[in-house]
Each structure stands twice: as C-alpha cells, then as structure tokens.
Design a protein that fits this description.
19 helices, eight-stranded parallel β-sheet, alpha/beta, about 500 residues
Amino acid sequence: METGVEKSIYKYPRSAGVLMSVPMLSGPYGIGVLGAEAMAFVDFLSEAGFHVWQVLPVEHTDVSFSPYQCVSAFAGEPMLIDPRMLLEMDLITADELAERAEGMRDDYVNYELVHEKQWALLRKAYSRLEYKPHADYKPFWLETYALYMTLHHRFGETPWYEWPDEALRSYDTAAIKAAKVDLYYEMDVYRFIQWIFDKQWQKLKEYAASRKVSIVGDMPFYVSGDSAEVWSARDLFDAEANGDFAAVSGAPPDYFTPLGQLWGNPIYNWRLMKRRGYRWWARRIKTAMERYDYVRIDHFRGFDTYWEIPAGAPDATTGKWVEGPGLQFFKTIEALLGSTNLPLIAEDLGHDYGNVPQLLKDSGYRGMRSIQFGFIGDEKHIPHFITEDEIAYTGTHDNTTIMAWMMEMSAEYRDRALLYIGFEGDWTAGGPNSAVIRAWMRSLFTCGASLAIMPIQDLLGYGADTRTNTPGTIIDNWVFRVRPYVLDEVDKGYIKALIIASSRDNMMDGK
C-alpha cells in the first residue's frame, strides 16, 4: 500500500441532507420519475432547510433491477423517464399516458410491470418521431451502448455471451463495424431514449441548484457481467467470450451476512487498466461528476483490496483479499481530470478496513460513518467520535431503518443508545415527527461531520417493512415507495430550526 504526504481534504460546507432513491418518489407511474414529483421533493428539501439530496445509482439496471447491477456504467435508467414529456412532445396520446398508469401501486415498485409498460410506451413514442431532436446528443459511450441494446433485443434479451452470432459475441472488429452500419436505424431508439433521460435529468439538476440543493450521486464499484462495458472490453474484466470469468466479486462474511455476499460481477484486470492509464475509469468518474454535484463511490475498499471469489463458488466464504490499485490510481485519475481536489465521497463501511484509513488520508476523500454501527460495538460511528472530515448517516441503504434497528437490538444496547440521545418515553412511537426520531436527528445533526444525511425512511420514522435493501438477498429489495402526501405531514419548520441550531444551514457548493 502506498502512502504519502497527507493531502488537503475537499471542504464540504456543514450541511444536512436526505438519502432517497429516485424510484422511491411518489407518482402515478409505479416508480418515481424525473418530473414533477422529483421537483416537489426538491421543494420539500429546500423548505425544510436541507441542502443535499443523495440518490442511489440512476444508471440502466440489468434484469435484477438492482441499482448496483448496471448494463451500462454511463446510460441512464429508462424506467425513470417521466412519460408526461412524451405527451408534451405529441408522441403519445392522453389515453396512452393514462394506460401507462393503470395497475400501478403507490407503495411498491413492480419492476417487471413498470419495465414492460415503460419500454412499450417509449418505443411507440419513438415510432412517431417526425424529426430527430436527439441528433446532436453524442456522448462517447452512446454508440456502443445502443448497439449492445439493439443486439440484446434482437437475440431475445439474452446475455451477450449467449448470442448465437460468434463474431458479435466476441466483439470482432469487422463484425461490429458492419453491425453499426446495418443496425444504425434500429439503434436510434436507444439514442432517443438516452437523450430524453439526459434532458430530464439536467432539468432536475438545474432546478435543484435553483433551490440551493446539491445532488450527491452514487457510483457502483463494479458493473454487471451482462453489460455493454464487459461485452465491448472483456480484457479489462478478465472475461472470456463465452461469459466465463476468472473470478467474481463479493464481500466476506460480516455482521450482515455469515456467508458473505456473492455479487457475481466480473472483477477488474487492474494490471491492464494500469497499463492503459486508467482511462476507462477516468471517463467514468468524469461522467459521474458531470451528472451529479458530488459522487459517492460504493465499495471504496476495493481500491485498497478487494474480495475475489472463485468462479462457480456457491457463496463468498472461499474468497480472498487481493491487492487493488491503491493511491497511484487516484493520482493518475486526478492528473487526467486536471484536479487534485475531486468532490468524491468514499463508502468505507465494513468490519475489516485493511489499509483503507491510510488510503483515505492520502487521497483526501471523505469516509462515511453510520451511527447504527456505533451502538453495537464499533465506537468510531458514535456521534461524538465522528469528525469533520467524515460524512455521517443514521444508516445507509444497506441498513434497516432506525426504528426497526431499535426493535431488533438487545434491551441492554437499546437502553444505552436511548440514554445517549437523552430520550425518555415511548420509543416505539414512530411516524413523521415522532419524538424518538427527533432525538436521533438531533444526535446526528450535532455531530462533527461536515455532512449529515438521513434516509427518507428514518426521517419518516418508518419500520422494517420499508427497508431499502437487505445485503445478500434478492427478494423485496429496492421496491419501497413513499406514498403521495406523506411528506406533507412532516414538520418542516422544526427540521429547519434544528438545522439552523446545529449550524447546518450552509449551501453545498455544487456545480
């Protein structure tokens, strides 16, 4: 592990924010979209004194619908497109828009149904285009993604390594060149869809900036094995043309999962990436910084050491730690991007930190603290130990809610935690504006962290049935939605007063 002179840390104003994925937003289309409801949420944040909205990844997911399993490291998720824009463009009818909303739940995302109806509507809208409003939209990744999606659709939505055409499966140069000519018009629907996504995202980001709200994005460490990137650059991922991987990704056993987490993504060929100057990563980070104001890198631990699991293993217990690219990676990225002060947040949570603290110190990026961990034996997460160069949370998307956490704790630990936050009374009374939630909010906001963030479920005092994700499982993750009008029940005046009292009324200096 490389070390060096401690670097100056990116300075975040002392602020507060809310963690809420876009799909959680209310609205009529079965999933949160980048339209009126997203802007209304920005209004809520602004009126309550928050200056930060942290989202989960918004990139195009694979069939698992996990935001951390993406078919593209760059393309946006089409399900998040607001279909009302299609009506405004006269590409669909009012009846077709109404049909898009039929059968949708307001508390739960039925991804299969949303996916089916959204894609049918997007294709119908594209078929009615009389000109190409997206003609000038040409990000560097678009053509490869559009070809990948076109072939994916042609071959029955099967993974690239199951495609019957060997030359296309192997990304043969001549075959790819010919396919881009032959399929140019079929590819255009995907160019159009990504143009719409980008247009809506930029409008939302600009609106957030006008309300003095910055957006913290989330970058998955890995990409899906069935993705445009792995298909088109298999050598960077140690992948064979038949879909065999030398090893796959995951995490070791911990307090979340006794068998560890078997993510299954292909690992990176770091030696080859280094020889190529880490340019793929530089493009990825640059794109993320253009999409968001600040970027949280998931599984930052992987840059120090990563858990490598033999291909075909039934779980993650047989994995081993392998040395990652270390500090030199970030030095190279900063040189390529022309800045030594990048607005990156490092997700460094876990029970075995290795040399991550030193890597954080040398790189100058902010680490994370989750106060739930502080009361079950990891004292660096206790609020009075959290420092200005860390980002503090009550919990992350991998934690249960603070209400459920209190329910699940032993009485000894719970009594200690309640004494710490100075709460006496009925701690089981949740919901918006509950007294115990206010006590946890006060503890979070008064800690030393420059940025304090609450998941929306904690802000609303919700229980275990609203949990975002349970690591190591694939059932009922990412499906929770906030019902319409629930945010109207929140006492925004109280939150704003607390934010001011804890000196968190500072605007993040987003782009």
